[in-house]
Amino acid sequence: MTVATTRDRIVEAADALFYQRGFEKTSFAGIADAVGLSRGNFYYHFKTKDEILDAVIALRAARTQAMLDEWTALAPTPLDRLRCFAEMLIHNREAIQHHGCPVGTLCAELAKSAHPASGNAAMIFGQFRDWLREQFEALGHAGDADALAMHLLSRSQGIAALANAFHDEAFIRHEVERIDAWLASLAPKPTATRARRAKNTHS
Amino acid sequence: MTVATTRDRIVEAADALFYQRGFEKTSFAGIADAVGLSRGNFYYHFKTKDEILDAVIALRAARTQAMLDEWTALAPTPLDRLRCFAEMLIHNREAIQHHGCPVGTLCAELAKSAHPASGNAAMIFGQFRDWLREQFEALGHAGDADALAMHLLSRSQGIAALANAFHDEAFIRHEVERIDAWLASLAPKPTATRARRAKNTHS
């Protein structure tokens, strides 16, 4: 096992514990135990919990970017890409019901303690916001793309918060359907000319 | 100063600290310091932080009910009452930008630690949900009143989460306008007969 791999294992374990238990509630010793490392080996990699937090935020930012890049590559249209974002709530429904949204809950916790990493954690919201804005621009809503991006992001946050409080999977599915309908209403409609032409072709 | 008043002051101080710093981050000693009490006097009222948490949740539940009763009494129509709920985000915009929603952030924190009081904290969401459902029923949406209540509650949660992450007051105002427009679209329309009658009256 290389030094890099041990560090990665620490960050992976901390990522999971911060999500499942919260940052404040997770101890330095708890992370070391989860990875099965001696204190000496652990301190070689990280001196403070704040250093681990920085590494966890960097890991989450990298994973977020990889996910957004994948959606961009695999979904053919802006509408499909926006739906990938909404579908994320369904894919992650089990974890969300147990622990909420990893980004939202970490941001909320760090904001309360006015933690120096608070702004970095919020930058992951910024990654989603920028990507969503691009999709709304491509969908033909350049004028209010940022407002639409913030609206969709906030709806996803609200769904995660209530699904977590009520442990309600049907609620998640119902709200994602509602988002899909809203997104469809924003998609460009065939023009009257195109519609006529289509009709003529069929007749 | 009576015994009851000292207890109330402890609960008030804990309520503020749990909101501003988080439950886990707030120590027993920190609450005693905020109230300016000796340990002996403090322990007379509360033996554990969990006992204080129960009292804080009871206080918040009582205040929530008083606020809902006030909205019911003062706002003349179901639409006005639903708007009172949305306006709450604007009234509390400073605190929300700094600390998020008090209900949502406490629920999220307690859910992560699987705290026994987690369900009680979520019951405050339940108070809002029940009251919102009644308003949507009165607005003529008996069939999907609960889904509409959950939708509005989740939108308010999402707005609080992002306003907290981005410290963005304009975003709060923009989203509340969007909610107002959505609520207006759900309000009963004058029927065609009524509209014709109104026209005849004016002509």
TrEMBL record, chains A, B:
Keywords: DNA-binding, Transcription, Transcription regulation. The keyword DNA-binding applies. It comes from the Bacteria. One of its GO terms (molecular function) is DNA binding. InterPro entries: Homeodomain-like_sf (IPR009057), HTH_TetR (IPR001647), Tet_transcr_reg_TetR-rel_C_sf (IPR036271), YxaF_TetR_C (IPR054156). It holds the Pfam family TetR_N. This is Transcriptional regulator. It comes from Piscinibacter gummiphilus.
